[in-house]
Design a protein that fits this description.
Number of strands: 28
Strand order of the largest sheet: 1-28-27-26
Shape: globular
Helix content: under 10%
Radius of gyration: 19 Å
Oligomer: single chain
Structural class: mainly beta
Strand content: over 45%
Order of helices and strands: EEEEEEEEEEEEEEEEEEEEEEEEEEEE
Length: 360
């Protein structure tokens, strides 16, 4: 728990002050709210640790996955598990039971590990470990579950620093299928959440967005879009419109695509920095609001037009002092309207190891 006097608003009507802040043990790179528990969220941290002999070649990576309750607009510690550096985390939208939720993460050893978080005992229990690569030094960079819309048969997909993408069966050890999706780092792999685990989108440091239909195999993509001026870093299906896809890039633009015609974006919105994560608002009443972590540019909310043809930044949070990496909306009230039109947001930045809570 942290006590924090919120920073003064800059005077701009779209600048959000922090309601609370905390400092994590390691540099922070991911944050995800639990879809089953209001205000509960997990933070992934990752950091290089100095070797005993002082040689950089012998450095190791370390980190944690920490679960918090953001009730009363503050950080309340719930659970923690140590990791060899957490790069991304995801909660399954299919509850394990009425009293537990599934939380998975990918780490710096190139593994996917799955944990069960107990709502009652407030403990994280490791249930499975999936090595994704046999090559030393390969990092697992991103993770997504297929069940946001279907709420059944959750299947993980992960991307690697080798440019590979791995399809994982939760019941089997290791990946079911691995393919070379990109020439350089595959920064992101994300399901088409409306496809019931059949279609995947990937983005890489080769500045390409690709689509893959698992029904016809992964020998070649269904499309490749090369229109980006930087690496493709984040992809998310709209949970409200089955054909809308948000894509972010190092080139400091948010792109909206119709998945039926992915060659050209419906709109392109300039942002304050390269985008690391993009998250659609969970409520249908705010289906056109997208939350962004824009690295050097802080955190932003972009409001897209009703026809998806344009967007504008309607809220910012500049209180963090380092790279803006982890960000998410609270799921509380997602099935209807949000009280007072605002939602609790959690954010995490890298070098300053800082977590923040604010509203947008």
């Amino acid at each position: 728990m942290s006590n924090y006097e919120p920073k003064e608003d800059t005077g701009s009507p779209n600048s959000a002050p922090l309601l609370a802040r905390t400092t994590f043990p390691h540099t922070a790179c991911s944050l995800e709210f639990c879809p089953h528990l209001p205000r509960v969220f997990a933070v992934g941290t990752y950091q290089l640790a100095d070797a005993a002999d002082g040689r950089s070649s012998n450095q190791t990576r370390e980190g944690e996955c920490i679960v918090y309750d953001g009730g009363k607009e503050n950080f309340h510690f719930l659970a923690r598990t140590a990791t060899p550096g957490t790069l991304d985390i995801k909660w399954s939208h299919t509850p394990t039971s009425n009293e537990a939720s599934t939380l998975s993460l990918v780490d710096a050893l190139g593994r996917l590990t799955t944990h069960v978080y107990s709502h009652t005992s407030r403990k994280l229990t490791l249930t499975s470990t999936h090595p994704l690569s046999k090559t030393p030094g390969v990092l697992a960079l991103s993770l997504d579950y297929s069940d946001r819309i279907s709420r059944t048969s959750p299947q993980p997909i992960a991307s690697l620093s080798s440019g590979e993408v791995c399809l994982v069966d939760p019941e089997r050890e290791g990946p079911v299928e691995t393919w070379q999706a990109h020439d350089f780092e595959a920064w992101i792999a994300a399901w088409d959440q409306w496809s019931s685990g059949k279609v995947v989108f990937t983005g890489g440091d080769d500045c390409k967005l690709k689509g893959w239909d698992l029904r016809v195999g992964t020998t070649s993509p269904t499309f490749t879009n090369k229109r980006f001026d930087g690496g493709v870093t984040t992809i998310q299906s709209s949970p409200h419109d089955e054909h809308i896809l948000a894509v972010g890039s190092y080139d400091s633009h948010l792109y909206l695509f119709d998945t039926r015609s992915p060659a050209r974006p419906l709109s392109t919105t300039a942002t304050a920095g390269g985008i690391w994560r993009a998250k659609f608002h969970p409520s249908p009443s705010r289906a056109h609001d997208v939350l962004l972590a824009t690295m050097h540019g802080g955190f932003e909310v972009v409001r897209l037009s009703d026809d998806w043809s344009g967007g504008e930044v309607v809220k910012t949070c500049q209180a963090h002092e380092s790279l803006a990496y982890g960000v998410d909306w609270d799921f509380a009230g997602w099935e209807g309207s949000i009280a007072n039109g605002e939602t609790l947001v959690g954010s995490a930045s890298f070098y300053d190891k800082m977590g923040g809570l604010w509203k947008a």
